[in-house]
Structure formats: structure tokens, C-alpha cells
Design goal:
The protein is 4% helix and 24% strand. With 275 residues, it is mainly β. The chain has a single domain (3-201), classed as Beta Barrel (OB fold (Dihydrolipoamide Acetyltransferase, E2P)), CATH 2.40.50. The strands form five sheets. It has a seven-stranded antiparallel β-sheet with strand order 9-16-10-13-14-15-17, with no helix packed on it. A hairpin with an 8-residue loop joins strand 5 and strand 6 (91-96). It is globular, with a radius of gyration of 22 Å.
Length: 275
């Protein structure tokens, strides 16, 4: 993927950057694998705001992604590489030999016409999905399950990848994108390769309106609110608050550990990201 720039006709255009989209082969999704995506504007089923600063944005259809990759022994052909408005990565439409079609996260380097496979008899090549016990040490992986059969939860965003560092006692030792080392059951599945669209993080939005198209509303600093609305609010002029920086609910915002000490998954973490 390349990053394109624009002629500086306006101040925002001067710093704005966009995608080249050379890898995209079609601009229309496969309709049977799409469904309507209702907008919640950051509210839960009670109508309470659980995620602030959300609302508006362009209409989207959700693409149904196959996160389990359980069609073992049936080869599939890559039909298209498509843009997905719901995620940073590109997606690929796979047509299996038995006629079924599905979407998968497109790894870097996947081409139209390429054959992919799932299961233990698959080769260790780009895009193939296998259990961790069948993958050699040192391999670069993405789309990794945390529990067998649950579906991929790790390394699904643009440019993400993990490394298989070891196998011991029924667990694989995975180096996460953050640098954390974690144990994952050997029966969990993973896909060989790195997630595509690696330049996503380098895109410059250029103007606030592009974030509004994505459904993000403006963020307001607590220091400019009233005391009844935020702990940092009130005071004459630009007040220094007189307290440690906190969130809207009083949680310290700089340096406080928020992970539960007795979290059940602690036993699977070998070394943390922050040492």
C-alpha cells in the first residue's frame, strides 16, 4: 500500500494524506456476507453512554469475517482484496472448492488467485491457518486464538504480528505486538504472516472533518469544563487544577496501574510489556 499526498489548495490539504488503494481489486462487497450495522452513538442497550465522543459518521455495512478458519482440508482461492470500513486491515474474499465463500483478514503479500488452506496438513505458507502445535518456532503469525475454537482475538489490526518463541507443557509462548510474552494453548489456531496495510498508522488525517466521517465527535478538555462536569473544571483563567490529573470519574490518569492484581489470566503472562 502506498500513501498519496494532495496539492495544497487549502491549509488542511497541505498535510492531508490518503491511501493509494493499489491492492484493492473491487469496490463492491459480496452482499451475502454483509449485514446492516446499526449506529449506537456510544450507548449500550440501556441507552447510557458507555463510550464518549461517538456519533454521526458515514453509513456502513458490516462484513462478516471468518475468525475461526475451521474448513480443514478444503482449498480456497482468493477472489478479491477489499476495503473494510469497520477495521484498519484489508479483507480478502475466499471461494472454497465446495462452493462456500467467506471473508478473512488479508495478510501482507496476499494476491488474487492464491490458494489458501486450513488444518494440520496445510503448508507453512502465507495465509494458511494451522494449530500452534503444527507451526515451527520463530514463525511470524497473526489472527491468533486465545481459547481453542473461540475464534481469533490477537493481532487482527493493520500491520500487527506476533512471533512464536517456544512450546512447553501444552502451551505456546507468543511474543505479542506490544512486546508482552504470553502462553497460549497449543490447540489454538493462528495464520502465517503479518496483517496487511502496514502504513495505516502513518496516515495524516489533515482535518477534523475526516474524523467526523469516521463517527468521532470532538474531545473537550476537562480543564475548560465547570466543576460539576469534571474534577479539573472551574477556577479563574487557565487554572493548574491543584490535583493530580484524573479522568472524569476521578481515576488517576498518569502512571496508575488499572489491571486487577488477581486477574485470572495473570498465570498466562510470562513477562509484561512494561518491566
Amino acid at each position: 500500500m502506498s500513501i498519496k499526498t494532495y496539492r495544497p489548495m487549502t491549509p488542511s490539504r497541505r498535510v492531508m494524506e490518503g491511501y493509494g488503494f493499489e491492492e484493492i481489486t473491487t469496490d463492491k462487497p459480496y452482499k451475502p456476507l454483509t449485514e446492516r450495522l446499526e449506529k449506537a452513538a456510544g450507548r449500550n442497550h440501556h441507552g447510557h453512554v458507555t463510550q464518549r465522543h461517538r456519533g454521526g459518521g458515514s453509513k456502513r455495512f458490516y462484513r462478516i469475517i471468518d475468525f475461526k478458519r475451521t474448513k480443514d482440508g478444503i482449498p480456497g482461492r482468493v477472489e478479491t482484496i477489499e476495503y473494510d470500513p469497520n477495521r484498519t486491515a484489508r479483507i480478502a474474499l475466499i471461494s472454497y472448492k465446495d462452493g462456500e465463500k467467506c471473508y478473512i483478514i488479508a495478510p501482507e503479500g496476499l494476491k488474487v488467485g492464491q490458494i489458501i488452506e486450513n488444518g494440520k496438513h496445510s503448508d507453512i505458507v502465507l495465509g494458511n491457518c494451522l494449530q500452534l502445535k503444527d507451526i515451527p518456532l520463530g514463525s511470524t503469525l497473526h489472527h491468533i486464538e486465545m481459547k481453542p475454537g473461540k475464534g481469533a482475538q490477537i493481532a487482527r489490526s493493520a500491520g500487527a504480528h506476533c512471533q512464536l518463541a517456544g512450546k512447553e507443557g501444552g502451551f505456546a509462548q507468543i511474543i505479542m505486538p506490544s512486546g508482552e510474552m504470553r502462553k497460549i494453548p497449543l490447540e489454538c489456531r493462528a495464520v502465517v504472516g503479518t496483517v496487511g496495510n502496514q502504513d495505516h498508522m502513518n496516515i495524516s488525517m489533515g482535518k477534523a472533518g475526516r474524523n467526523r466521517w469516521k463517527g468521532w465527535r470532538p474531545f473537550v478538555r476537562g480543564a475548560v469544563m465547570n466543576p460539576c462536569d469534571h474534577p479539573h473544571g472551574g477556577g479563574e483563567g487557565k487554572n493548574s487544577r491543584g490535583r493530580v490529573p484524573v479522568s472524569l470519574w476521578g481515576q488517576p490518569a498518569k502512571g496508575m496501574k488499572t489491571r486487577k492484581r488477581k486477574n485470572a489470566s495473570n498465570k498466562y503472562i510470562i513477562s509484561r510489556r512494561k518491566k
